[in-house]
UniProtKB/TrEMBL annotation:
Gene3D superfamilies the UniProt entry points to: Nucleotide-binding domain of ferredoxin-NADP reductase (FNR) module, Translation factors
Superkingdom, taxonomy of origin: Bacteria
Cofactors demanded by this protein: FAD
Record-annotated membrane-spanning stretches: none
Organism: Cecembia rubra
Protein name, entry field: Ferredoxin--NADP+ reductase
Keyword field: FAD, Flavoprotein, NADP, Oxidoreductase
Domain FAD-binding FR-type: 10-132
Length: 285
């Protein structure tokens, strides 16, 4: 049984599209930022939670609805008693490996096609594997790709606007196919750059060497370029590593950490400690 099928979808809320705008250029893959407004005061959502979107869709398995989870991409806000939540959506399609037919992603295309005022059904909120640490001297290594920036953007904004005197180091490694697709870290939509002057925060970019060839994003090289600092952070028991992004990058990240630690055995032992201490979490898609 999948994780999604375990979630309670009976409790549903009506959400209305308050804003929707495209973050990426028209000649790149479409990624939209959508702000939803939920009128029901019973719906509350925090920065380290996700929510579901239900789309009416018949499948071969007999399901009447398609359920997809989205991380909160900004600080949830309240206006006139209504909760506002922000999400990132990438319009997806895939080729069936047997038939060769092109299919559109159900939820992503549904959401990207919504307009201001449209109503959608949402579920949740649900817990994310990622949690903002309670201790303010905790270190965080955040590794995100594409729309995987969403939960980390909310984390960073929460920590520097609502937490007081955060002392731990926060290192954000963010990858995209090209500089124009670096969400919230480019000249147009650069709100994460507002935190560059924070003594504890630094962000590092990684791009694909050949974006039109669908090559892996070079996040491993970006991380290894900071090997000395990463090794120091891994020497502390209060360091967390959170990853959100593509499966194809995961193997290269593992190799990078092996190189930083000096051997496969040392990295496997350290990673096991992180997992046991609930300081390692990943959302891979």
């Amino acid at each position: 049984m999948s994780y999604l099928s375990d979630l309670n979808t009976k409790q549903q809320y009506k959400a209305r599209v308050k804003q929707t705008h495209r973050l990426t250029p028209t000649n790149k893959e479409e990624i939209r930022e959508i702000i939803l407004e939920v009128e029901d005061p019973a719906f509350k959502c925090k920065v380290d939670q996700s929510f579901g979107v239900l789309v009416k869709h018949s499948s071969d398995f007999g399901n009447e609805f398609h359920h997809r989870l989205y991380s909160v991409a900004d600080l949830p806000a309240t206006q006139n008693g209504h909760t506002q939540i922000t999400m990132l959506v990438k319009r997806c399609n895939y080729v069936d490996e047997f038939s060769g037919e092109l299919y559109n992603g159900v939820s992503s295309n549904y959401l990207c096609d919504r307009r201001v005022g449209d109503e959608i059904n949402i579920t949740g909120p649900f817990e994310l594997p990622f949690k903002v640490p309670e201790e303010k001297n905790a270190n965080m290594i955040l590794i995100g790709m594409g729309t995987g920036i969403a939960p980390f953007r909310a984390f960073i904004k929460h920590i520097y606007s609502q937490e007081k005197d955060w002392k731990g180091k926060i290192r954000l490694f963010y990858g995209a196919k090209s500089g124009l697709e670096l969400l919230y870290l480019n000249d147009k939509d650069g709100d994460l750059t507002n935190y560059y002057d924070k003594a504890t925060f630094e962000a590092f970019h990684a791009l694909s060497p050949r974006p039109h060839w669908n090559d892996p994003i070079m996040l491993d090289e970006a991380i290894e370029s900071r090997a000395e600092e990463i090794l120091e952070m891994l020497s502390y028991a209060n360091t967390y590593i959170y990853i959100a992004g593509y499966e194809k990058v995961k193997e290269n990240l593992n190799k990078a950490f092996i190189n930083i630690m000096g051997s496969k055995e040392k990295w496997e032992n350290r990673k096991a400690e992180l997992i046991a201490g609930k300081k390692w979490a990943e959302v891979i898609y």
